[in-house]
Amino acid sequence: MKQIVELIINGDSHDVIVEEHRSLLDTLREEAGLTGTKKGCDVGDCGACTVLVDGQPVNACLMLAVEASGKRVETVEGLQSASGALHPLQDAFMRHGASQCGFCTPGILMMARQLLEENPDPTDEEIRFGLSGNICRCTGYTKIFDAIRSAAQEMRTTRETEVTL
Amino acid sequence: MNMPTPNLKNEFRIIGKSVKREDVIEKVTGAGSYVSDLKPVGMLYGKIKRADVAHARIRRIDVSKALAYPGVKAVLTHEDVPRVLHYGSPHPRSASCTKDQFILDNKVRFIGEGVAAVAAISEEIADEALDLIEVDYEELPAVFTPEEAIRPGAPLIHDVGPGGNLVLEPVRVERGDVEKGFAEADFVLEGEFSGGRPVPAYMEPNVCLADWDGSNKLTFWTSTQTAFMVRGILAEVLGLPVNKVRVLVDHMGGGFGAKQDCFQHEFLCALLAKATRRPVRMEFTRRETFIAGRSRHPFKLWLKQGFRNDGTITARDMKIVYDSGAYGSHGPGVTIVGTNSATSLYRCENVRLDGRCVYTNTPIAGAFRGYGVVQTYYALDIQMDEAAERLGVDPADLKRKNAVGEGDIAPSGHPIVGRGLEACIEHGIAGFDWKARRSLDRRPDPSRPHIRKGWGVGCEMHGSSAYPGIKEQGNAVVKVNEDGSITLMTGAAGLGTGAHTALAQIVAEELGVLFESVSVVHGDTDAVPWDIGAFASHTTYLVGSAARIAAGKAHSGVLERASAKANVPVEELMLVDGVIHVTGQPGLTMTVAEAMGPSKGIPAANILGKGTYEPTKSYSFAAHFVEVTVDTGTGLVQVDRVMPVHDVGKVIHPIAAQGQIEGGIQQGIGHTLTEDYVIDTTNGRSLNAGLVDYKMPLSMDMPEIDTVILEAAPDPSGPWGAKGVGEDPIIAIGPAIANAIHDAIGVRFRHYPITPEDILNALKQREDQ
Ligand code: FES
Ligand code: FES
Q1: Rounded to 5 degrees, what angle do the CA atoms B749, B751, B752 make?
Q2: Which of A109, A128, A159, B504 could serve as a FRET partner for B573 with CA atoms 20 to 30 Å apart?
């Protein structure tokens, strides 16, 4: 059975016609044309497909598109600001060599973004724990931890400046 | 030899600096295009029907139901595809390979081998159609271990090769007089070593997309390390001239060596597209990356060495058997490289080595980071630790004493340059505070009596490039544009290591322009110069040298043009950061853009520098120092700290090099403690073909890594002395961990992975004795 589902992806409303069994991941990639979110396993094991749904990280391969109906979906494509400026996490990933092949990167960025949203000043342990569902096979994680720490620091400083202003 | 004259300046403007990798911007924004992101109009989905028997003849395949299923556009079996015997590993013909594969055969050699392929309008329909294909098998007796496979009378898996299920004739290396060496020894150590079947588990499952145009030209997007090899082998097997096959690869999600083969699905995807006249994309499921991907070769090794009481090794006798699985793939290369490597690492005059590679009815082993050497150096390094224990000396000292260096001959037959290994060991001893740590009070803490700490060191050396096994060639073209920007054209694939950034740095440095002005065009066999492929830790070394030569020519071209334009002798010109200066006349400058651009009566310049480089071989070295905690209650081993010390010659991009080292350590920890793709040796079935059951180290498992990169032994055959780094970090970490476990609990393990069960069993056995 096909259904029309309204997804609010990165702030834009998309009406997509999907089979009920279609995953959110396939819908994002194949119907909405947003291929930034990657498929590393399709069974919830690798975290490559992590997106935020109503602010919560989910494995898009494990959620049906119909379940996300009417919800706010955020993907890596929405991280950059409207003006094109990179999110501090994106910039930090570039500077610190946290992205090698880049296949895990969109998922890890979304997970990290959620992590910093909830906890702007995470300890190393909290960063490690936060990423425990995301597999990266290239980096040894070390540079990813560095990048997240550095982005957190930068985001806190920016926030403080904003508050003082 | 066509190496540029050595650059005597010791101040570098760009190389050696961790410039911001602009090529990464596409990865962090999600804009980067991987093959599975492409979806041309009218695209069909391809799927492979896989055998559920380990060894069988196909009596009959009935595809009529599948073909009749709505949405199915084509079905192919062995009756529909060209029957051309080919190398699964499309190495250039200068290498030893084994022609033992058909696209689809009338015989099945392992569970999971493809027997038919389907193209349909959706993935689901394609999947459903696979179930409708009926295959009638005549089952044959099968063998699942090399021991079974080489037993007299064992069923033959192939009718090619030297026979007896050998993939190639045994590799024998003899030097000196082994018997005399053993006679001179004060003591002899002998042991058996073995290792499981780790897989690369790159995050991007294998994927390709094929499309034919009206002129019968195939455009083929694929996630491969070797685009030109894929082009060559596709052309050969499909009977096309190479200019009728265009292979494209933009971003790829890792490869670690295994994406060097030309896979069954790649041929099938091309043929399905041809049959349907529509683009077809074929993407592995994660399960398929295990079953139909490539693993490291499982191995069994017997090693006997004689030692003198002063630590000298007097003789080395080794036999190794690699398990190739159902096809040869990289078996020959791995056997040759792995066996030869045992002539080296720790000096020994008298060696006798015997390397074999054997077919079994199991999934195919192939190329994987550390190519054959992970196995042999695991054994050599652990036995060295045993020797140190026997002698009552510090293993790091013993390893340093025996480390090969300048004056020794490398496994490739080339002289070793410098004393890289010694330097790595020395730096580690000091930096890791090795001596002090090892002499810490070892009595267990009474509140946690089951916790034991241990420290270990492992060493390795690895060649940059596959020479002399393969006669390699690096190529580059550097184009200077009319606005002064630079385009580097390279066939080298970007697996994620930062190779394109390093190449751009080399070009910018040699040419004398800003790094930001260089962009890289890659991944299109129609547009870039021929490339052998990204493997063997050779991209920076080999293609980097070619890029440096090309940039040097472009540099001369720019200065000649400026000289003519400004009427200043070329010898007086100097190009720095994109600005041409006249020596002795400060203030008189011209930008590259001004030199290149058109002016009245003169058209824009057309400057192309072309570089080709044929390397010999250089070796990188490493010593890994680790600290582990062993929980004798649970058998769990935790790696707490690692100090990898690497000699890479001249480092081009420190952060990228560190990143590769740290990633290699992650994979190496996995190999040593948890990773093993297990095949049931009674029936050939996969037992853990998924990321939950195949246990890799995750963020919580990673130790503190304190990477040290030395430039101790630059090799003149690489750009400014640069050598490779890609494979090295996975090699030394294994024995380092095994040695540290021994240090912690006094039990010697000679296999990987060393599981909690192994540890508990060993401790129990010791108690029982
Ligand atoms: S693709 Fe969803 S978790 Fe792996
Ligand atoms: S960068 Fe390749 S998997 Fe993480």
Answers
A1: 115
A2: B504
Q: Could you tell me the CA-to-CA distances from B518 to B132, B234, B483, B575, B595 in Å, in that order?
A: 53, 33, 12, 15, 17
CA distance A162 to A156: 10
| Alpha carbon distance B584, B703 (integer Å) | 55
Q: Domain containing B575 — which CATH number? A: 3.30.365.10
Shared domain for B511 and B609, answered yes or no, is yes
Contacts of B672 (CB under 8 A, 6+ apart): B733, B734, B737, B738, B752, B753, B754
List pLDDT tens digits, range B508-554: 999 999 999 999 999 999 999 998 888 878 888 899 999 999 999 99
Q: From A41, A101, A144, give the residue whose CB has the most ligand 2 atoms within 8 Å, as the site to mutate.
A: A101
- Give the closest of A34, A35, A104 to B203, CB-based: A104
The per-residue pLDDT for range A114-124, each reduced to its tens digit, is 999 999 999 99
Do A92 and A69 share a domain, yes or no? no
Closest CA to B386 of B244, B188, B649, B172: B188
Residue A56 and residue A16 in one domain? yes
CB of A51 shorter than 6 A to ligand 1? no
Q: With contacts defined as CB-CB under 8 Å, which chain B residues touch A128?
A: 699-700, 702
Instruction: Indicate whether A48 and A66 sit together in one domain.
Output: yes
Q: Say if the Cβ atoms of A45 and B699 lie within 8 Å.
A: no
Nearest to B495 among A99, A101, A140 (CB): A101
Strands (DSSP E) found in B78-158? 86-87, 99-101, 107-108, 114-120, 134-139
Residues of chain B with C-beta less than 8 angstroms from the C-beta of A75: 30
In a domain, A126, yes or no: yes
**Are A42 and B662 within 8 A, CB to CB?**
no
Q: In terms of residue numbers, what domain contains B497?
A: 24-32+473-613
Where is mean pLDDT largest: B380-394, B487-501, B718-732? B380-394
Do residue A47 and residue A101 come from a single domain?
A: no
Same domain, B484 and B585: yes
What are the backbone dihedrals phi and psi of residue B410, each rounded to the nearest 5 degrees, phi first?
-75, 165
Question: Of B552, B580, B613, which closes a domain?
Answer: B613
Residue B234 within a domain = no
Helices vs strands, H then E, count in chain A:
5, 5
Interface contact flag, B21 A97, Cβ < 8 Å: yes
Ligand 2 atom at shortest distance from the alpha carbon of A137: 3
The per-residue DSSP string of B402-450 comes to HB--TTSBPTTSSBPPS-HHHHHHHHHHHHTTHHHHHTS--SPPTTSTT
A97–B656: do the CB atoms touch at under 8 Å?
Answer: yes
CA of A28 to the centre of ligand 1 (A): 13
Prediction ipTM score = 0.96
Residues of B in contact with A139 (CB under 8 A): 659, 662-663, 666
> How many domains are contained in chain B?
2
Which residue of A35, A101, A109 is in closest CB contact with B252? Answer: A101
- Give the residue from B509, B463, B340, B506 showing the smallest Cα distance to B715: B463
- In this predicted structure, the answer to whether residue B7 has a pLDDT above a threshold of 80 is no
pTM, 2 dp: 0.96
B567 alpha carbon, distance to own chain's centre: 51
Collapse the DSSP code of B51 into the 3-class scheme (helix H, G, I; strand E, B; otherwise coil) and give the result: coil
Is the separation of the CB atoms in B167 and B372 below 8 Å?
no
Give chain B's length: 769
Answer yes or no: is the C-beta of A49 below 6 A from any ligand 1 atom. yes
Indicate which atom in ligand 1 lies nearest the CA of residue A135: 4
- Full residue range of the structural domain in which residue A143 is found: 88-160
User: Residue with structure tokens 């940059």?
Assistant: B464
How many residues make up chain A in this entry?
Answer: 165
Q: A6: distance to nearest CA of chain B, Å?
A: 22
Q: Is residue A129 part of a domain?
A: yes
Domain boundary among B613, B633, B657: B613
